[in-house]
Amino acid sequence: MTRRTDAPGAPVTMATVARRAGVSTQTVSNAFNAPELLRSETLVRVRKAVAELNYRPHRAARSLRTRSSKLIGYAIRASDGGGNVMDRFLHALSQSAAEAGYRVLLFPSPAGPAELEEYEELLREHSVDAFALTHTVRGDKRQTWLHRRGIPFVAFGRTWGSKGVGDWVDVDGAAGTGQAVDHLVQLGHRRIAYLGWPAGSPVGDDRLRGWKEAMKRHGLPVRGLRAQALGEVEQGAAAAGGLLDAGASAVVTASDTLAMGCYLALRDRGLSAGRDVSVVGFDDAPAAQLLSPGLTTLRQPMEDVGQMCMQLLLKRITDPSAPAERVLLAPHLVVRDSTAPVPLTA
Amino acid sequence: MTRRTDAPGAPVTMATVARRAGVSTQTVSNAFNAPELLRSETLVRVRKAVAELNYRPHRAARSLRTRSSKLIGYAIRASDGGGNVMDRFLHALSQSAAEAGYRVLLFPSPAGPAELEEYEELLREHSVDAFALTHTVRGDKRQTWLHRRGIPFVAFGRTWGSKGVGDWVDVDGAAGTGQAVDHLVQLGHRRIAYLGWPAGSPVGDDRLRGWKEAMKRHGLPVRGLRAQALGEVEQGAAAAGGLLDAGASAVVTASDTLAMGCYLALRDRGLSAGRDVSVVGFDDAPAAQLLSPGLTTLRQPMEDVGQMCMQLLLKRITDPSAPAERVLLAPHLVVRDSTAPVPLTA
DNA sequence: TTTCTTCGTTAGATCGATCAAATTCACAAT
DNA sequence: ATTGTGAATTTGATCGATCTAACGAAGAAA
């Protein structure tokens, strides 16, 4: 026999609410999922009961019936080294997800080919409705795999290969370095150098292109104003030295680390960033504002990236067959003291 | 009427598996949850059917019946600035959780008093079984709140207030700076300075204490070998200058940022870290190994922290009334080139 | 008055698993 | 042959919501 009384301490379910409001459970359900179906007076009554009992629908029950977990899977990597960028993305993503009634399910991603098995496992258990991908690489298998099965997903990071599938959001590196050049030109610089990574990395090539195109747009020469180094500070310093010798009055770099290399190269020559030579970094790492002088750098708009990812994902969930959307967002130039007008003596 | 045939494309449920294995659904359930109850021959038969159908139990259904979501809630903050420490914690936590059959549910934590409402919401919906807390502060309300309701939780970060409740895991800052001193003493240093933050921050005071106690243990003087600065690199450099003037041959610092200040102070004097004066940082920030020379620093054992958190949490879930456990883990000294034997000239 | 609509609400089945209790079976003890 | 015992398996109820379909009441049209 079903319990008719509401013992204190008994779990509060829809039936409890229904009893108190003097309606059926279906009406309570409608109050949550289709309030427009209720007469406004009934709605008020149900809402009152919900508030008094502090009731919320049981996720598992709802999810079992509706076949939707309202969870988005996100694979976290061992140590992505991405500095605080991934942190910010994750926060922005979960924030936007929450606003849309979703939450983020975190799972550790085994590197390599076993990775897809984790995705599959989550799907088999119906643990997630969709995925958010990051750390996309050339010819990433995940996109096509998910696409083939009709699982909604969105990627932070473009599909670099020619024939990519699915929606993505990415940061426009070229626009970023372009902005940096514009900023420096406005300060009177003309010999604006670029310090990047060796050719071949898509992200690096993109940032280089932005500098090159902006220089052309302003009618400025680029010959001899380009150097490259790997991610180490000291190597950056060596490469930056060459650019200074070539008479650069400003250096746009592919990363804050390389920018730190510039700082060192300047210090070794008794010069100072900002005062003598302007330097622009990329990423706005935590160290950037701690440096002295504070580093002018390109901050990736992770809040917007997360929000946009969620927006595309929701659209995809709603309409799985809509054409893919791709969004490029420009980084934001954070101006600190490492950029300044060209010194008169130069 | 119940469907007796298994149409292709129909969802694979326990009934499908049961039919194929020629057993009841309960037996399939037992194969997952209590395999020792089955005759080994039956178990094999069921496992075979499971494998052929690629079946996994539906999370929501299981969770509805067992009243356990197997999810651990974790509140992600806007930008905790914790560098890569939180990243590593989160990865370690989800890794250990996965090994125990749990996953991590990420939710954005609104700052301030509204925070607890998010926790409550998750509990009301039965979305999580337990919580992992970080960023604990003096007199944190979350611990007592969760404790009072009997919700299992674990904190990364000790309860600094006197009357804390609940299990926690933390990094032993004092042990870290102590190790740094030991290492330097072994290299022949005697005038080992400490560069920390202004008194008052519990973490900072802890690290200072470790240095002081280790110095006493080795019978070394501490007078005049202590300075403090806020988190900025340049201020660190100024403070470090004083220590160098006081004849320090090595500096233990409270953070990698302060260590970078030492680098600058040395460079300004034409000296170099490692060769002339040894420097030890704290945290192993991404920049630490990029610096030149590479920074010897104390790396927080986040993998162990995450694992231990999960271990305590599982115990707590199993036995909610067991006495609280607290674990302190020592950081690991990562030796790079910024520490070296005392130069002969000194 | 009767019948037809429409709107709001209710009743009963269902999602896919686990729990508690009942049942079957093999085998030993009486 | 009968009963007892324990292990292996099955049966039926249940978790808490949503779905489909049916129902009742109010007002409009006949």
Beta-strand portion of chain A reads 15-25%
Major beta-sheet overview of chain A: 6 strands, parallel
Poorly predicted tracts of residues of chain A: none
> Could you give the count of β-strands of chain A?
12
Strand order of the largest sheet of chain A: 2-1-3-4-5-11
Indicate the radius of gyration of chain A in whole angstroms: 27 Å
Q: Give the mean pLDDT of chain A.
A: 92
End-to-end separation of chain A in angstroms reads: 92 Å
Helical element count of chain A? 13
What's the oligomerization state?
homodimer
Instruction: Give the class of chain A from helix and strand content and strand pairing.
Output: alpha/beta
The helix/strand order of chain A is HHHHEHEHEHEEHEHEHEHEHEHEE
Name the largest protein-protein interface in this structure: A-B, 55 and 55 residues
Helix content of chain A: 40-55%
Output the keywords.
homodimer; 346 residues; alpha/beta; six-stranded parallel β-sheet; six-stranded mixed β-sheet; 13 helices; 15% strand; elongated; DNA-binding
